[in-house]
Amino acid sequence: MMEVALFGAGRIGKIHAGNVVRQPGVRLRYVVDVDGAAAGALAAAHGAQVATADAAFADKSVGAVVIGSSTDTHADLIVRAAAAGKEIFCEKPVDLAFDRARTCAAAVKRAGVACMIGFQRRFDPTFAALKERLAAGEIGEPEMLVVTSRDPGAPPVDYLKRSGGIFRDMLIHDFDVFRWILADDAATVYATGSVLTDPAVGTVGDVDSTAVTICTRRGRLALINTSRRAAYGYDQRFEVLGSKGMLQAGNHKPTEVTSATSANVSQDKPEHFFLERYRAAYALELAHFFDALATGKAVRTSIDDGVAALELADAATTSWREKRIVEL
Amino acid sequence: MMEVALFGAGRIGKIHAGNVVRQPGVRLRYVVDVDGAAAGALAAAHGAQVATADAAFADKSVGAVVIGSSTDTHADLIVRAAAAGKEIFCEKPVDLAFDRARTCAAAVKRAGVACMIGFQRRFDPTFAALKERLAAGEIGEPEMLVVTSRDPGAPPVDYLKRSGGIFRDMLIHDFDVFRWILADDAATVYATGSVLTDPAVGTVGDVDSTAVTICTRRGRLALINTSRRAAYGYDQRFEVLGSKGMLQAGNHKPTEVTSATSANVSQDKPEHFFLERYRAAYALELAHFFDALATGKAVRTSIDDGVAALELADAATTSWREKRIVEL
Amino acid sequence: MMEVALFGAGRIGKIHAGNVVRQPGVRLRYVVDVDGAAAGALAAAHGAQVATADAAFADKSVGAVVIGSSTDTHADLIVRAAAAGKEIFCEKPVDLAFDRARTCAAAVKRAGVACMIGFQRRFDPTFAALKERLAAGEIGEPEMLVVTSRDPGAPPVDYLKRSGGIFRDMLIHDFDVFRWILADDAATVYATGSVLTDPAVGTVGDVDSTAVTICTRRGRLALINTSRRAAYGYDQRFEVLGSKGMLQAGNHKPTEVTSATSANVSQDKPEHFFLERYRAAYALELAHFFDALATGKAVRTSIDDGVAALELADAATTSWREKRIVEL
Amino acid sequence: MMEVALFGAGRIGKIHAGNVVRQPGVRLRYVVDVDGAAAGALAAAHGAQVATADAAFADKSVGAVVIGSSTDTHADLIVRAAAAGKEIFCEKPVDLAFDRARTCAAAVKRAGVACMIGFQRRFDPTFAALKERLAAGEIGEPEMLVVTSRDPGAPPVDYLKRSGGIFRDMLIHDFDVFRWILADDAATVYATGSVLTDPAVGTVGDVDSTAVTICTRRGRLALINTSRRAAYGYDQRFEVLGSKGMLQAGNHKPTEVTSATSANVSQDKPEHFFLERYRAAYALELAHFFDALATGKAVRTSIDDGVAALELADAATTSWREKRIVEL
Mean per-residue pLDDT for A70-84? Predict the structure, then answer.
């Protein structure tokens, strides 16, 4: 039986808790959160106990930690978990600072523990099927990737202030998709952005709409467009043009109802936001994590992937701030 | 805590077991099956015990039964469960014989217990959303219903022999959809059918392809087309024409990948069969059942619905056999 | 140069005139219509002359007639044209009376002229492509045909009175589609219908909503659903289930714009009515007619097809009126 | 009667000839081409005469010219036509050299004649409907434009040599779409490109795959992705994200047939290439041109639009060549 300590009892922590308890041979032992009431409620719902971080790390019976607490705690928890010899699942990003993320990666490597970063999109049934078909050669060699990534609405300005900026906070997932799908290294990054949805975003030095172009070492092109606000919901699509065709990953809809009226022929909007769209992906990534631990296989989204995505986010941030093309 | 006895440890029994244990306040206490090994394995997987039917009915702590055993056992188990004062969830059909189904309904009524029949399609997210929008008046008054209901492949001939014929075995779901969606009583039923997919179907006195037309008391029209074999998978669609428009329920797909090649532009086939397509519906119907028990609300698909669907199946069988229009 | 006399300067006559003048080697010589002003305007627009029927038939230089006048004139004009040795293109139906239609067919045969009936749907790009792929074996043997055929709104009651009833007026096209697609003879026809859109339809002894089931000699099944009113426009779809798959013919839309808003994701309604939906088909059927004349090939939709479709319309009318299954 | 001289009897010339003769009140008088046989055949097909450029310009009865000859002749023909007082329709581009294009625009202005540039996409039914709905406020203020523009295959290398490069030859249409849809001026342009489909493209100093990002003065973002080769045909889509939703222009398909087999569910590829996809647009742009002349309205795609698109093409070429962001 693998005993697990969960850090973070918020929105994503609840998702992970539900998925942890569904794994055969895995038990949720502790929930750790600075908000004692939240930790207590989540622990109670799943027959776990509330603990401090110290206690969780000290307990030898705990074999793995799932880190879903706030971003600024990730690096410290990873380092401590690695030191304590725990296997690690951690939400993205590793850290907002590239150097600190690299330090974490080194600590993980020294400790010889697994450290999976929660790039859940790789486990989305649609995205994963596309990747598999691409890898099987269905459209030949990939040449161009177009990613559309739009949230239904911006988080509070207070959150934005501490977010590290849109490239690190939101596009980090898209940078990981880029790396995963094109399977090539970025040679140049160009990023531009605007404040179009809410002037408040600009007051904290951030943008809400971005366009990023990456050219890889082999000349493959990636175009990423992002917005903090899509009135029709969470828009998560990408398409790959290959030498023999194109593969597109479309949005998921709540239902398959079509309505034809005197106005038009309509269908559902996309799933509202990430908790709905990636519900299956969140379950599958944790299943993969525990399966990898059980079978000794490597995790599919390692801390190195987390570091590499952050490097791209940093490059994009620099490109946008300094209005120049960044070479990597 | 509601203690539950599950009858049947086969394919559908496993689905129900998994959904029972997920309900808050509900515990799977017993698994009953003539195949002791199957019962044992399923019980063990969910921390339940194997029991005989007698023992399960005798245990006063058991508040509800879930019947997923073979069709020929349904009626007897319903009557015994009702006599024992247990709340009942039973897979369709109540029985292959109309009179016996009515006897069951009477027994349930006398006992004053709930008896929900497993017309899971009413709980399918797409079908349920369509019904809700229809009821809300989105397309005015319903006028015409077209149901397409095709299996990916026929069951073994051995099964067909004991199935009661395609109208009772397969179309019973479609008859329930008809009653639910048009909310009107059938006035006439016309059914015709052919053996087109496999001559073996004809040797047991059945057909594999059918066309059924129902005209309701208010003149609404329903056309149901059914086949035991659709090479592209499980095809479960219907559409309602109303005075102000049309609502269509389409198939669900495993993923939203689109592939464009020199051949064509393609998407996934529909979900393969009922276990995949109605996965969510099976979970939602049991959630509804236990919620109805907990809150004292009526169950949405009662034994009367089971009897009424069977009456239509009988009428269709007669129409087909006697080559005539049947009035109800 | 093939000289043509056009009968009928109404809505469909105008369509045909425009298509006649576009054929290479074909000249519109005369326009004949009881409404002299309409004839004059149409003739003028295309550099033709107004003539009486007598004059048109008497003119030896006229090689072909295109009959787009009112239904009650078709039979007489066909017989006269055949007697005059003219090649004939005539709008459906040949006549509302089956015997009279057969008389026309005999006259045509005696005269040895071509006589093409305007079942334009066979020339619709979507329908024709489906037929070709079906014939090429893409889905194996056809087993089931489901036809959806709905008008955007009913014609005036005055028209309905003289229309021959919905089965002869509207479904005659669907009966031809059935014959063309399944390539098998009807063995039994069952038709039912209701007045659901406007009580006035019932006052003239007609219905506005129908369900027709045909079983062919080889056991293939066809289900046709029809309504005089679809709030979302002209709905012209059919699908064929075959032993190896399904082919569906969908509606055509004016544009490929998709709109995603906070309400839903919508597309255009289907093309409004037959003039829009079958614009290409009307052009292609006349091109085929004149090409067949020029090359000596048989026309693809002969007067025998017109007679056969009428026979099905009669059978359906009888089935509906007498509430019984009609054997053919 | 407006008499027209057509320059160019090649592929696009034939399209224009067919559309000219369909305009009421317009007559195709002359066809001019260095290839006398081609000119003769096209003139004969439409009842026109072959003429030299000199003769066509000298004939006072000629009111308008349609220029569909090779790119290197456009500027000279525009200047001569303007001097002769003819109204002008000219295929894109005005010229490959920006200064020369501006000189043409000045000549046109001095002469006071109309000069419409053949940006036919603005007349495509789907694109035009999208623009109209955008202008009507359906999705609020536009924020982001994503253009996908891919040819089915590259032209011969010999053509590429004289094409002015992919940004001037192929993307000039996309730059016009950008200007038309976002209705704002470009502030910065970034372009990158690769040789991915055929090394021969690189040998003539061109690329076959490009990514262009434009930021407008108001901060709106446009991302254009282009390839010379899409195995699935001509891919012509764009989407606009606005403050209240999104409008997407999708590809057109030859038919609306759907095929469901054991492999997948498929539809037609997009229309093969520009002659098929923009057939309606080519007809509508000429109808607009002659209607504008007849009514004295301004043409919708003026020579200024041609100059402005060329300016963007130049900026993109510079950005790509010099690996830098270009400010306008």
Answer: 97
Please give the share of chain D, as a percent, with pLDDT higher than 90: 99
Distance of alpha carbon B26 from the chain centroid = 23
Angle (nearest 5°) at CA A207 between A202 and A212: 160
Q: Which residue of A has its CA nearest to B258?
A: A248
Question: Quick check: D211 and A144 CB within 8 A?
Answer: yes
Neighbouring chains to D with at least 3 Cβ pairs closer than 8 Å: A, B, C
Q: Could you tell me the pTM of the whole model?
A: 0.96
What's the rounded mean pLDDT across residues A234-250? 98
Distance in Å, alpha carbon of C42 to nearest chain D alpha carbon = 15
Contact D209, D90 (CB under 8 A): no
Collapsed DSSP state (helix, strand, coil) of residue A112: coil
Q: Is D230 near chain A, with CB under 8 Å?
A: yes
Strands (E), chain C: 2-7, 26-32, 49-50, 62-67, 87-90, 115-117, 142-150, 186-194, 209-216, 221-227, 235-242, 245-249, 257-261, 265-267, 326-327
Average pLDDT per block of 10 residues along chain B, 328 residues long = 96 96 94 97 96 98 97 97 98 95 97 98 98 98 98 94 95 98 97 97 97 98 98 98 98 98 98 95 98 96 97 98 97
Mean pLDDT of D19-38: 95
Q: What is the distance between the alpha carbons of residues C117 and A299, in angstroms, rounded to a whole number?
A: 68
Taking an 8 Å cut-off on Cβ atoms, the answer to whether B247 and A256 are in contact is no
> Which token pair is B82?
């009702």
Instruction: Provide the residue type at A214 as one letter.
Output: I
Residues of C in contact with D133 (CB under 8 A): 257, 259
Tell me which residue in A126, A247, A258 faces B259 most closely, judged by beta carbons: A247
A1/A285 Cα distance (integer angstroms): 19
Predicted-complex ipTM score? 0.96
| Closest of A88, A105, A79, A123 to residue A2, by C-alpha | A88
Which residues, in sequence order, are CB contacts of C136 under 8 Å at separation 6+? none
Give every CB contact of residue D12 below 8 A, 6+ residues apart in sequence.
D68, D91
Helix (H) / strand (E) containing B326: strand B326-327
At B246 the pLDDT is: 98
Residues 159-188 of C with CB under 8 A from B: 188
Tokens 């224009």 belong to D16
Q: How confident is the model at residue A100 (pLDDT cuts 50, 70, 90)?
A: very high
Closest-CA residue in chain B for C221? Answer: B211
Write the single-letter amino acid at B78. I
Closest of B173, B141, B328, B322 to residue B247, by C-alpha = B141
Q: Quote the minimal CA–CA distance from B312 to chain D in Å.
A: 31
Which residue is closest to C251 within chain D, CA to CA? D256
CA distances, A196 to each of A85, A206, C45, D186 (Å): 47, 11, 54, 16
- Looking at residue B165, what is its pLDDT? 96
Q: pLDDT by residue (tens digit) across C92-149?
A: 999 999 999 999 999 999 999 999 999 999 999 999 999 999 999 999 999 999 999 9
Identify the pLDDT of residue C202: 96
Give C325's contacts in chain B (Cβ within 8 Å): 190, 323-325
Say if B254 is an interface residue toward chain A (CB within 8 Å). Answer: yes
Q: Tell me if D266 and B262 make a contact (CB, 8 A cut-off).
A: no
Scanning C84-146, the segments in alpha helix (DSSP H) are 98-111, 125-135
Tell me if A255 and B133 make a contact (CB, 8 A cut-off).
Answer: no
- Residue D268 in contact with partner chain B when CB distance is under 8 A: yes
Residue B98 CB-density burial (10 A; 0-12 exposed, 13-18 middle, 19+ buried):
middle
